[in-house]
Amino acid sequence: MAKRSVSGRKEKKRTHVAVVEESSKLPSDPNSKVPKSLVIRRGKTAPEVAELVQDLRQMMLPYTAIYFQEDSKNRKLTLQHYSKHVALPMGISHIMAFSQTENRLNFRLGRTPDGPTLHFRVNQFTLSKHIRALQKRPVSYTSGLRTNPPVVVTNNFGDSSSSSKPDNTGGRGAEPHIKLMRITFQNMFPAINVATVKLSECRRVVLFNLLPPDSSSNDTNEKDKDGEDSSKDLTKLPRVEMRHYAIQATAVGVHRRVRKLASSSRRNLPNLHKVQDIADYVTGQTASGSTAASSVASDAAPSDSEAEDDPRHTIELPDSYMGHRKSQKSALKLVEIGPRLTLTLMKVEKGLGQGDVLYHAHVQKSAEEVAALKAKKDKEAALKEERRETQNMNVEKKRKAAEEKREAKKRRKEQRQDAIMERLRNGVEPGDNEDESVRDDNDDESES
Q1: What is the pLDDT of residue 287?
Q2: Rounded to 5, what percent of the chain is helix, strand, coil?
Q3: I need a surface site. Which of 31, 118, 147, 212 has the fewest CB within 10 A?
Q4: What is the C-alpha separation between 444 and 101, in angstroms, rounded?
Q5: What whole-number distance in Å separates Cα of residue 251 and Cα of residue 308?
Q6: Residue 148, SS3?
Q7: Cis (ω within 30 of 0) for the bond into 176?
Q8: pLDDT value of position 295
Q9: Residue 99 near residue 45, CB atoms below 8 Å
Q10: For residue 434, what pLDDT is reported?
Q11: End-to-end CA gap in the chain
Q12: Counting Cβ atoms within 10 Å, is residue 312 exposed (0-12), middle (13-18) or buried (19+)?
């Protein structure tokens, strides 16, 4: 039943949601400027690429179009079309597009609506299902992992925080395209406010690791001594490895069997039908001092992947986390949940899929060549604009001439009608003059 307010009017609470004005939103509102992504595939691709797209959407949760489906007839649409008709209405800030040719898989990452666009070559990728198949205890992708965005970690990109350490640029600091990659990767995910973030919201980690070029590769290719194939050797370019992990916490200082009893679900409880007391299971010995049943003895063997084996991984929790109480000593470890990607940056464009080329992995131009090419492009653009203006002027001129012709015809018709009405008022029969005026009208219609 609807409640009555102080003024006596009824207020519906269940079916009416209060509308929040855009002007009333604070600049610090986390939902006002949250980056959102769209992962798509363009053209014909292999079935594994479609699974890779779904894995990336799972990684980008919760701020991504998880159920977006590309129309098979419109897979060749440009990034500008997606930006105009999909990204802008949905508030999407980044578009990730996969395209496949006969011998390579390409990946484009663009910022809507004005760019820039980063072109990558996918060297290797591994699906999430393949990673889980190799793990002894894989992590299930539950709703707790999907609710909050992952924490972004960039390594070896030569940023200011690690300028004192050796990097891929020989100590000179990061190059512009390396900085652009780092900034783009960071801006794909929401920023974390250290002062207000909750520990329970940090459940996943996305790592972007920049690998230096492989110096052991051959400088020339035997097939082509002109350098055509050697310019396509991707081992001479820095690569970016992307990894996706889940954070797990394990209590420290608690016997492994006790922890197993506390953390196991009802279906995964250990088999205790051969022990007389719970103490026999914990200690591994019976009251008489003999060894407990072999059915539970295997639980005493430690796992080589346990995080508490290394004291450096042990911390004191500042807040409750994954069922562990505050101030409890716990060991943290990362479990990979996929997907994996190894990328090589090939080109950077200023706009969204178009515009000036800011960086190219294989084509290097001097300042004079860049200036000459820019002047040529500007001249072509100016000539194109001049032709467009001339065409618009001609179209407008023809439109005005047609309008003047219609107005002149209309005036002549009105004059003839006025003349006929004047003769009728004076009692004069139109006679031949009327037939002549009709012929004039027919001639005007034929001319038009």
Answers
A1: 56
A2: 40, 20, 40
A3: 31
A4: 62
A5: 8
A6: coil
A7: no
A8: 41
A9: yes
A10: 52
A11: 72
A12: exposed
Band (291; pLDDT cuts 50, 70, 90) = low
Name which residue leads in pLDDT, 444 or 240: 240
Q: State mean pLDDT over 295-313.
A: 48
Higher local confidence (pLDDT), 20 or 316: 316
Helices 367-426 and 432-447, interaxial angle, to 10°?
A: 170
Tokens of 69: 């489906």
* pLDDT, position 123: 92
DSSP line for 183-224 = HHHHHTS----TTT--GGG--EEEEEEEEPP-TTS-SS-SS-
AA letter at 80: Q
Q: Name residue 343's beta-bridge partners.
A: 122, 240
pLDDT of residue 311: 62
Least confident of 135-149, 227-241, 412-426: 227-241
Residue 165 is encoded by which pair of tokens?
A: 């350490």
Model's pTM, two decimal places?
0.66
Cβ neighbours, 10 Å, residue 129: 12
3 state DSSP class of 331: strand
Q: Is the dihedral of CA 319, 321, 323, 328 positive or negative?
A: negative
3-state secondary structure (DSSP) of residue 315: strand
Q: How far is CA 148 from the centre of its chain?
A: 16
Query: Which long-range contacts link 435-439 to residues 24+ away (Cβ below 8 Å)?
Result: none
> CB of 350 within 8 A of CB of 340?
no
Evaluate whether 57 touches 64 at the Cβ level (below 8 Å): yes
